[in-house]
Amino acid sequence: MLKKNKLRLGVATAAAVCAVAMAVSASPAFADPTGFKTLSGVGSDTIQDVVNGLGSAVPAIGSYDAIDPITGVAGGTITTKASGPAFVRPNGSGAGVQALSDSIEGGTHLWNTVNISGQVDFARASGFQGVTGTDLTYIPFALDAVTYAVNAGSDFPRNLPLGSSADAASRLSLYNIYHCIKTTYVDSNGDPITIHPLDPQSGSGTAKFWASTLGFSDGSLPTCVKRVNTDTTPVSVEEHNGTSIDDAGDIVPFSIAQYIAQGNHATLASAFGVNVTERRGNVALGSIGGQPAIREVGTTTVMNPSFPVTRSVFNVVSSALVSPAGPIKSTFVGSTSAVCSQSALIQSFGFQTLSNCGDTSLQGAFTQ
To answer: Kind and range of the H or E element at 282?
Structure first.
């Protein structure tokens, strides 16, 4: 029988979230903005909920989910500006940065055949998506960590080393699993279980980060790594969605902050008006190198500050708008910006704060 895997939300957590919410005076930020905001953002699934939460405290922010919040599937269109065109909803960090690039460049740079010039002001990104250049500025605002998730009812080992190319072929490590070197583990009955390494959709910041961490190419996956889970009915693997992790051999990367936020979905909805979709399914998070993904601090569940696989997450903007006075600068730039001033809110969504929040030193080129 599969065990239920629920993340506890303690009284202390609920009280902390509600305390932050009492200071929020703006209108609630549900899955997509109500009306048109000054700054329209698209992109990463990983940080969509926390940025929606920031929209409750920073009225300029209007953030559109990576997948349709009504249907729960990728696709559909959005309109981000009054009298603007409807265009395909960008799904993931890569798509968000591409849409931002097309919005800034305009002209012949079309997003899915649509001219979206001036329609996107920032992109949510869970990692660097560009190449060397100065067109875009990646402004960090929070710290996430990524681990692996497996079916909670399986015997899949819950503590694995990250591993490296120096691993023996017999070693059960994340490197060997995602390089198709180690293809089975032995369950409690002594039976070999085939491992199914899964990866989120192409263009996902998490997919790119996981590939970089484990030393393979997100653009050309190892033969055993799939973006469609075919255990039962074929299902495309979406970021931080464990509902299709239904086989004893399934393994997929998962944002720890997203896992915490989904477990807190009811309280976050009440406190911030943010619709965080609970889609963890029946998954358990694994430890890496002996470090658990989450810890209990009293009755509060938090990200393990010692977890070894971490990444900054970003709001990406036009570099030309970073220095001049205006909504981009006041919202995102510097440690006293509107976003960086919301450290308690950011932590309520499972992330850790950054000492370099608002930094503008990381730049990249437009993506094509």
So the answer is: none
